[in-house]
């Protein structure tokens, strides 16, 4: 009796399982019929395999600044109002001598006066003739940007870029001597080498880049030094304004205060011509001795790893100023950023 009851229960469970399986199969078929398949909705799409995974597009990752630049904040908050007051020149509001001559010519009906040498490219006389040089023996002054009539902060001196150059005279005969110099500039500036196989993504036109390092090659020939055009003679690092401020911060904080024989960069004498190209270029050049090169934070830790220890450097800081007193205003900007300048009579040897 017990065996009969157990067998009947087993057959009952089997029948109920088959009935539930039939119901689930019918529900799945009805669900497939109600929802259109992906192939019917998009016949052109290729069937995806079960093993394929979704891949995101490759996006280059660049590490940005993790903190604000100290000198940049100092310039925006403290130095710029002082420079606006100290660099104000009322003579910029008056027209220059060339503009006065052009206005005088227009008053005479376009006839060129004796002091100004006009040159009309549309005239038959000027065709196939080179333009006449300016009258007199004075050098041509760079074009000066007129002062802004709406925003006075546009006329403030700013740093555009910085050139950190190291020249190796023995590289003419042995190009391998430039390798430790390149490594030294990479440790100081953090820039990448232009033209290397590992750094092909350097964007020279991007203003927010970190700059680049390139090998300087000679452009002229000097037989006495056995130099031909195209021979490597040094290495230079070109840094944009944000990175240039970091280098100037390291120079004024860690390097120059620890040089024993350094008291400040010499200012030009009072007898220096104010109309010279150097006084109107807006470029300030600073020299570094071999003693100062070992005091940079990036190279001081492992200074023994660099072989070129007897080399100095030259730093050229390019500003946005051009015209009269441009370099003087650029030195005023660097003095506010911590670079010391002294008169020649005050320098102690």
Automatic annotation (TrEMBL):
A Pfam family found in this protein is Ribosomal_L5_C
Q: What ranges does the record list as Polar residues composition bias?
A: 1-10
- InterPro entries in the record, alphabetically? Ribosomal_uL5 (IPR002132), Ribosomal_uL5_C (IPR031309), Ribosomal_uL5_dom_sf (IPR022803)
According to the record, the residues making up region (Disordered) are 1-58, 107-154
Q: Which UniProt keywords apply?
A: Ribonucleoprotein, Ribosomal protein
Low complexity bias: where? 14-52
Task: Establish whether keyword Ribonucleoprotein is in the entry.
Answer: yes
Single GO MF annotation: structural constituent of ribosome
- The residues covered by the Large ribosomal subunit protein uL5 C-terminal domain are 232-341
Which Gene Ontology cellular component annotation is one that this UniProt entry carries?
ribosome
What segments bear the compositional bias annotation Basic residues?
A: 129-138
A GO BP term here is: translation
Please tell me whether the keyword Ribosomal protein is annotated for this protein. Answer: yes
Q: Which SUPFAM superfamilies match?
A: RL5-like
| PANTHER family noted in UniProt | 60S RIBOSOMAL PROTEIN L11-RELATED (PTHR11994)
What family does this chain come from, according to its entry? Answer: Belongs to the universal ribosomal protein uL5 family.
Q: What is this protein called?
A: Large ribosomal subunit protein uL5 C-terminal domain-containing protein
Species of the source:
Ceraceosorus guamensis
């Amino acid at each position: 009796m017990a065996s009969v009851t157990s067998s009947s229960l087993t057959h009952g469970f089997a029948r109920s399982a088959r009935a539930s399986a039939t119901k689930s199969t019918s529900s799945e078929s009805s669900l497939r019929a109600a929802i259109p398949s992906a192939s019917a909705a998009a016949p052109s799409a290729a069937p995806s395999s079960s093993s394929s995974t979704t891949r995101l597009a490759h996006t280059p990752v660049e590490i940005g600044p993790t903190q604000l630049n100290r000198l940049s904040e100092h310039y925006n908050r403290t130095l710029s109002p002082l420079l606006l007051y100290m660099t104000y020149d009322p003579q910029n509001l008056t027209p220059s001598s060339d503009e006065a001559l052009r206005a005088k010519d227009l008053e005479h009906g376009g006839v060129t006066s004796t002091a100004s040498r006009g040159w009309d490219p549309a005239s038959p006389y000027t065709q196939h003739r080179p333009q006449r040089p300016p009258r007199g023996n004075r050098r041509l002054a760079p074009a000066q940007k007129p002062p802004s009539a709406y925003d006075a902060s546009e006329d403030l001196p700013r740093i555009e870029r910085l050139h950190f150059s190291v020249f190796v005279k023995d590289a003419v005969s042995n190009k391998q001597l430039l390798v430790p110099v390149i490594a030294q500039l990479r440790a100081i500036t953090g820039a990448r080498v232009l033209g290397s196989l590992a750094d092909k993504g350097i964007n020279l036109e991007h203003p927010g880049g970190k700059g680049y390092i390139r090998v300087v090659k000679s452009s002229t020939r000097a037989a006495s030094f056995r130099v031909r055009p195209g021979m490597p003679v040094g290495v230079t690092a070109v840094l944009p304004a944000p990175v240039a401020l970091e280098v100037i911060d390291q120079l004024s904080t860690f390097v120059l205060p620890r040089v024993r024989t350094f008291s400040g960069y010499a200012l030009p004498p009072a007898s220096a011509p104010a109309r010279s190209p150097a006084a109107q270029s807006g470029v300030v050049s600073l020299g570094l001795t071999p003693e100062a090169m070992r005091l940079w934070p990036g190279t001081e830790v492992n200074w023994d790893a660099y072989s070129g220890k007897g080399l100095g450097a030259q730093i050229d800081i390019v500003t946005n100023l051009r015209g009269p007193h441009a370099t003087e205003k650029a030195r005023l900007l660097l003095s506010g950023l911590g670079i010391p300048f002294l008169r020649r009579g005050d320098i102690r040897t």
